[in-house]
Amino acid sequence: MTLLFVLALVVTAIAAVMVVAAKNLVRAVMALALMLLGTAVLYALLEAPFLAGVQVLTYVGGVVTLMIFGVMVTRRHEGANAPAERIHGFRGLVVAAGMFALLAWAVVASDLERGATPIVKPETTRSLATALLDDHLVAFEVVSLLLLAALIGAVVLARRRDGRDEGSAILAAASREAIDAQQAPAGSAHGGDAR
Amino acid sequence: MSSLQSWAALAVLVPLAAALLCVVLPPLRRAGKPAAALCILASLVATAASIYLLTQHEAGAVTRTEVPWIVLGGKALASIGVNVDGVSVVMLLVVCVVALCVQVFSLAYMHDETPSSYGRYFTLHALFLFSMNTLVVAPNLLQLFAGWELVGLTSYLLIGFWFHKPSAARASVKAFWMTKLADMGFVFALLALFVATRGFDWNARLSTETATLVTALLFLAVVGKSAQFPLHVWLPDAMEGPTPVSALLHAATMVAAGVFLIVRADPLFAQAPATCEVMLWVGSITALFAACLALVQSDIKKVLAYSTCSQLGYMVAALGAGSAFAGFFHLGTHAFFKALLFLGAGSVIHAVHSNELADMGGLRRKMPVTTLTFGIGALSLAGVPGLAGFFSKDFVLAQLEGKAGWIPWTMLMATSFLTAFYMGRVLIKAFGGAESAKAHHAHESGGAMLLPLVVLAVPALAAGFLGGVLAEWSGAEYHVHLGLTPVVASCLAIAGLLGAVMVFGRGRAAPFAGVLESLDRASAVDRTWSGLYRHVLLGVSAVAGFVDRYFVDGLINAVGYTTIESGARVRRLQTGRIHDYAMAVVVGALLIALWGVLR
Amino acid sequence: MNLTHCLLLASFLFCVGVYGLLTRRQAVAVLLALELMMNAANLAFVAFAHFRGGPGQLFVVFALAITVAEVAIGLALVMLLYRRHDDTALDRASETQG
Amino acid sequence: MSHLLAWIVAAPAIAAAVLLVLPASARLPIRVVSLIGAVVACAGSVLVALTYDRVAGGMQMPDDWALVPSLGIHLKLAVDGWGVALLLLTGVIIVTGVLASWGVEKRGKEFFLLLLVLVSGVFGVFVSQDLFVFFLFYEIAVLPMYLLIGIWGASHDVPKRGPFGFAWKRFAVGGKEYAAMKLTLMLLVGSAAILVAMFLLWKEAGGTSFDLAHLEQTKFSLATQNWAFPLLWLGFGTLAGVFPFHTWSPDGHASAPTAVSMLHAGVLMKLGAFGVMRVGMVLCPDAAANWAWLVGGVAVINVLYGALCAASQTDLKYIIAYSSVSHMGIVMLGAATLTTTGWNGAVYQMFAHGIMTGLFFALVGLVYERAHTRAIAKMGGFGHVMPAVACFFTLACLSSLGLPGTAGFVAEFLVFLGAAEGAHSWWAVPAVIGAVVTAVYVLRACKTIFWGPPPTGEFAHLTDARSTEWAAPIVLGAALILFGFWPRFLLDFIDVASHTFLARIAPFS
User: Fold this and answer.
1) Which residues does chain C have within 8 Å of residue B586's beta carbon, measured at their own beta carbons?
2) Model pTM?
3) How far is CA C75 from the centre of its chain?
């Protein structure tokens, strides 16, 4: 059991680093998917099977695909590799490392293991469901409203006012790019757009 | 209020009514002649009232009525009213008579003025008479101060009557500032008196050093108003005003207000011997100093101005010697003959159209009456026995002989010689000798100008004999005795006159005239005053102005500037990029966590 | 496998997410990093629910819902950003500069 | 007549409301409506003066409307001796002010609207007996100044000099916008100080009511008073032109149009002094006694320093603005003496100086409208072309230098007496010297402008005062002489109130 736990742990960690360190956006999203799967395994190990399932369904299924769409649609002419440059690299690292040091010190110093009484009644999906649907029914309904609002909001935000759809924008971009290539064959215009 | 006070109040309020009428009804003032008539009528009423008061007044009686002017918490802090006693009655008569003569004289003298300025002239005269009378009949020092300042105001307005002349404008402002500077003393005296006695009465019993303080401050005001030594520089410049104004204000009445104040506040001065000592010396110095300068003036009015300065020095010296009556008697006689001299000079100036003695000469043939009256005035001033001047001046010298040291006595003796000498010079230069070009077609002035001269000549001759009556009224002892002083004084007077005839008859200059002329031109005192004004006062105010505009205000501007500047700098923090904001959030969270942990 | 390990992993994931948030230029990459951080939090919840009991899992359910909503809106904003700047680099959009 | 005080305060405001309705092009109706508003208020204050029972004294003609009962804020109006005098002053100044600005061309409607709002605020302050409403009206009186100076003002350039020259980079010192901004900001900082002190006192008095009578009854601890009084003194003092915070006044008045500077120098600065005495000194008697040396010391600086600054100015309006600072110093000096004579002198000086400055600024407005320059060096011999203006200007000069027979003398002499008999009698010396320096710069200005040979060139055809322009000089000039010859018309009112208020301080001073 611990072997599986360690394995999942390592996979999740590496995937997380990959998400952040990947040069190519698509690879980053794939890494995120892997990380989410790793987490789902961990949930299962921590006797939260329902969550693991939900995790896999919503995240890996929904969110990751959504991300892929996001990446693909918002790319002009970099082609497949969709570079993701980094800025303030060093400063970000220092702050993140500082935060991790603090959190890690807090977790270790609070010595959680001492006096850890084993839990008497394990949390089952049944008890989760009853908690969700009768104790916290109101919260449940509110969350559904929230999701509906998010849904409508996203649609309204992203609607194109000028009636042309996304696809045509990409086609227009691609055709423009083709013309550029003919006129300036030796042009370096790769990757970074002229800032 | 018994009839006496109502008459005195009349003498004060009628000129005020005339002045207010002229001010409130501009058409009346602009018409000129009607305004003059109204003002002269007011002066007539005032003179009649003063004459009536004189006849009704019995010796030694003091009647005073006061109306509360400022009432604080039920108690009358200050009050105004009328005070009729020997001194004020005589002074009222002197003022009103001289004022009437001067106003009648001005009718002709100012006839070539435009009607509106003619009206303005007489309105100011009425205002002056009101102020002088308020001062004369004042029951307490506060009302006396009010009259004092109002007289200063009318002097400012009348000196600057021809305000189109820049020199007249400067002279009037100079006169007002110098008297206002000196009046600061009067204000401090009133404050000290009020603190000591919660009142402004001159009969107050004070401790000697408070009395000395009050009287010294009052004397400072007198030095300013009566043009004593350090503060006399404004009087010669005041000759810029029309000659009748110089006659009335700057010879007979206004400048005498200072002496009148000392006579009025005699109970206070009696308690302060130290101040009297100072007065004695300042009076003597002024008398001698002014007499020397009078000797070298080429302008006839300047000669008379310095002569007034010198005679005022006499009166102040007499008061310093402790005899109030001597000063007052000389004040009375001096008012008459000095006014006569000035009006005489006015008549000559009117005929010759110039103030310079050089333009005059041999006028005795063309202007007999003026010559005669001017002569009487000059001899009376010189102190020739028998005339008014002799009696009053020698009485002053007699008082001095007894009480003061011999130095002031000798100084005043020298002054009486010099007085005779410079008056002789004026007589000869103006009326004797050959006719100058301008004097050739001069002609005698009209009746309106001659009548006042004649009227004033009478007291110049006879006033001396009234000494006894006056003394009895104001309760002082007076006797004419032929001791050493009167004889020496009259010999000096006659010697002065003869000397003038010998020296100026043959057209030669006075022996040490050169020195005096250079002294006069140098006018060290005048230059120090203008230097004080221009460099000290304006200098300090320029510094204050700069400090206020560029330091105090600058500080406020700097505060404003730094606020805006720091605002601009802080604004640069908002870069608009999300990463910076994210970094700020994370670092902030981290710091709070650290603070939580480390605390 | 105990609570400390799980929490250590959760904080590691969280800090990696923070690193990603601070350093990535592309808007989508930042959203990914955010996703990472949210998951770290959920992991911690589940770990506590497992080792100490309590309604940890319930929180996770709601957290999931909220995260999904956030991603949807995030991506809509990214679309707008792209449409306006032809590029999803976040530091180009600095109109709010003071 | 019931609700008289309410009518006085409301009349200008109602007129302003009516103005809102009128079209901007209706030139004459606008002016007539504003005049009616002003005249009603002035007539009301005269009626108050006539019906005020001098013997009884104290607060009379009370009106009371609850505004915010929970906090204890009532629109409580009543008038005391001081109020009568200052109402009269405001009434006279607003009527003459409206008449003096008959010829305002640019946006006349808004000008008169703001002027009337301002003056209703001033009326409110003098009669309100509730500290909160007092402060409310105080703000109403101060704020319109910003627009009035900013829009209708006149700017002039001030050369960049001195150590703080860098500030010129950020704003055009001397411009009308600069003057308006500085004036408003400094007065608002002052109001902030007042607000703090106000709540301090309100809290200490149990936090139930802002009524001044109630606040007067509570015995404030010395600590609170030692905090509240300086705040109130500096807060109200800024408006009264107390020394370090007076620099808004010269710029403000020099840039303001005629009627605004008449109202501001004439009445608003008295608001500050009234505030210091009525709120500061009456509510915090011990602190007033403790700090009297400072208030008096600064006032003495005000008098002498203000006079010296005025003597160095070349711009006519600046001379008069600095002279206002100097004369307000005399008011504060009178207040600092804590003697009945001093206090009566201070309030009488408020009245006398209000009239005097009103007259000065009205005449300066006349000269400026004709000669279009304020530099006295360029002028000369105006007495020939405008004799009436010359006469009234001389009268105003004489009153400001304290000549007996004018209101200025009575006020200044009472303050000098108060100072002499007060604790620090040496204060009288610089005050009197200040009066002499005033005589110097005032008469010098008069000589430079009105005396001298007749003007040639552009000034040859200048005309004397016309139709409505006669109102201000005649009314104010007559007031100066009337209250100079017979001060008891006003002094009896003021004296009654001074006694009641000073009784609270007497045991401490």
Assistant:
1) 18, 21-22
2) 0.84
3) 13
* The pairing of beta strand B75-84 with beta strand D60-68: unpaired
C-alpha distance from residue B449 to each of B101, B103, B430, B532, D496 (Å): 9, 10, 18, 42, 57
Would you say B293 and B422 are in contact if contact means Cβ atoms under 8 Å apart? Answer: no
| Dihedral angle of Cα A141, A143, A149, A155, to the nearest 10 degrees | -120
Residues from chain D that touch B68, judged by Cβ atoms under 8 A, are 488
Residues of B in contact with D398 (CB under 8 A): 153
Dump the DSSP string for B166-203: HHHHHHHHHHHHHHHHHHHHHHHHHHHHHHHHSS--TT
Q: Is B560 in contact with D167 (Cβ distance < 8 A)? A: yes
Q: C98 and chain B: CB distance < 8 Å anywhere?
A: yes
The CATH classification number of C3-88 equals: 1.10.287.3510
Tokens representing D254? Answer: 């020099």
Whether B257 contacts B228, CB under 8 Å = no
Dist CA D164 CA D175 (whole Å): 17
Contacts with B587 from chain A: Cβ below 8 Å = 95
CB contact under 8 A, C26 and A84: yes
Give the model's pLDDT for residue D8: 93
> In angstroms, rounded to a whole number, what is the distance separating the alpha carbons of residues D458 and D446?
20
- Strand-pairing partners, residue B63, are B84
- Candidates C19, C30, C45: best to mutate against A (most CBs of A within 10 A) is C19
Rounded to the nearest 10 degrees, how much is the dihedral formed by the CA atoms of D443, D446, D449, D454? -110
Please name the helix (run of DSSP H) or strand (run of DSSP E) that holds residue D76, with its range, or none: strand D73-79
Distance CA B61, CA B80 (A): 20
Burial class (CB in 10 A: 0-12, 13-18, 19+), A140: middle
Chains with ≥3 Cβ pairs under 8 A against D? B
Q: Please, which chains are in contact with C (at least 3 CB pairs closer than 8 A)?
A: A, B
Kindly tell me if the per-residue pLDDT of B404 is higher than 70.
no
For position D437, what pLDDT does the model report?
94
* Alpha-carbon gap, residue D422 to D276, rounded angstroms: 19
For D237, counting Cβ atoms within 10 Å of its Cβ (0-12 exposed, 13-18 middle, 19+ buried), the class is: buried
Q: What's the confidence (pLDDT) of residue A193?
A: 41
Packed helices D176-204 and D131-142: angle between N→C axes, nearest 10 degrees: 180
Contact B157, B240 (CB under 8 A): no
Q: How many CB atoms lie within 10 A of CB B1?
A: 12
Contact A102 B579 (CB under 8 A): no
**pLDDT, position A113:** 73
Point out the residue among B163, B191, B550 whose CB comes nearest to the CB of D383: B163
Q: CB-based contacts of B125: which residues, under 8 Å, 6+ apart?
A: B39, B43, B99, B102, B103, B106, B158, B248
**What are the C-alpha distances in Å from C3 to residues A122, A128, C48?**
15, 21, 7
Q: Over chain C, what is the mean pLDDT?
A: 87
Q: Give pLDDT tens digits for B215-232.
A: 999 999 999 999 888 888
All residues at 6 or more sequence positions from A84 whose CB lies less than 8 Å from its CB, including other chains: A22, A23, A24, A25, A28, C24, C25, C26, C29
**Helix residue spans in chain A (DSSP H):** 2-21, 25-45, 49-54, 64-73, 89-109, 125-130, 137-158, 166-183
Residue B477 predicted with pLDDT over 80:
no
Q: State which residues form the domain around D262.
A: 4-508
How many whole angstroms separate alpha carbon D52 and alpha carbon D47? 8
pLDDT for C9: 93
The encoded tokens of residue D221 equal 């601890």
A72 CB-side CA count, 13 A: 9
Domain count, chain D: 1
How many whole angstroms separate alpha carbon D355 and alpha carbon D480? 7
A·C CB contacts under 8 A: 235
